[in-house]
Amino acid sequence: MATAEEGIRFRLRADSDVAAITTRGSMGDPPEDAPLPYYTLMRVDAPHEHHMGGASGWTHPRIQVDFYAKTWAVVLDLANKARIALDGFTGTVTVGAGNTVTFKQLFLENDNTDSVQPDDSSDRRIKRASHDYKVWIEESVPTPT
Q1: Residues 6+ apart with CB under 8 A from 104
Q2: 16, HSE (Cβ side, Cα atoms, 13 Å)
Q3: Integer angstrom CA distances of residue 82 from 9, 25, 98, 103, 110
Q4: Residue 90 falls within a domain, yes or no?
Q5: How far apart (Å, rounded) are the C-alpha atoms in residues 16 and 71?
Q6: Is 50 exposed, middle or buried (0-12, 13-18, 19+ CB in 10 A)?
Q7: Which end of the chain is more exposed for a tag (fewer CB within 10 A), N or C?
Q8: Residue 85 backbone phi and psi in degrees, to 5
Q9: Are strands 126-138 and 99-116 parallel, antiparallel or unpaired?
Q10: According to the model, what pLDDT value does residue 119 have?
Q11: Is residue 61 in a domain?
């Protein structure tokens, strides 16, 4: 079973409007000296639902997607196209040969913008838009011993 982060990354890669701007997306930190624009994904938290009998088989991780570009116009366009591709999505995403993740619900919970200092000696700040997505997915239930 694929992770929620992998499913989101592959959904963004498959979206033609997002891919028209960039196909560079990575888990965690971007590759060193990655050309702009790009996006990164990170799991912020992942509460697991339980009931009196134990694990329910449901989890709802919060996935942060950060979009980076040289200009506000590009980063806001990229973030908006990603929002359209992701917010409200339900369905199964294939992330490799026989590896899938099924989203019971995927929705945008929060977004914001800021700028960050580049890694090089440049004084021009990189523009960033951040989205927090709440994801509802099923997970395997442990067998009590």
Answers
A1: 90, 136, 137, 138
A2: 0
A3: 10, 12, 25, 16, 13
A4: yes
A5: 21
A6: exposed
A7: C
A8: -75, -30
A9: antiparallel
A10: 66
A11: no
Would you say residue 145 has pLDDT above 80? no
Whole-structure pTM value: 0.88
Using the Cα atoms of residue 28, residue 42, residue 103 and residue 25 in order, give the sign of their dihedral.
negative
How many residues in total does the chain contain? 145
Structural domain tally of the chain?
1
State the residue range of the domain holding 71: 1-45+67-117
| E strand segments, the chain | 25-27, 38-45, 48-51, 54-59, 62-69, 89-96, 99-116, 126-138
Determine the Cα–Cα distance for residues 140 and 145; give it in Å rounded to an integer.
15
Give residue 27's identity as a one-letter amino acid code: M
Asked if 68 and 39 touch (Cβ cutoff 8 Å), the reply is yes
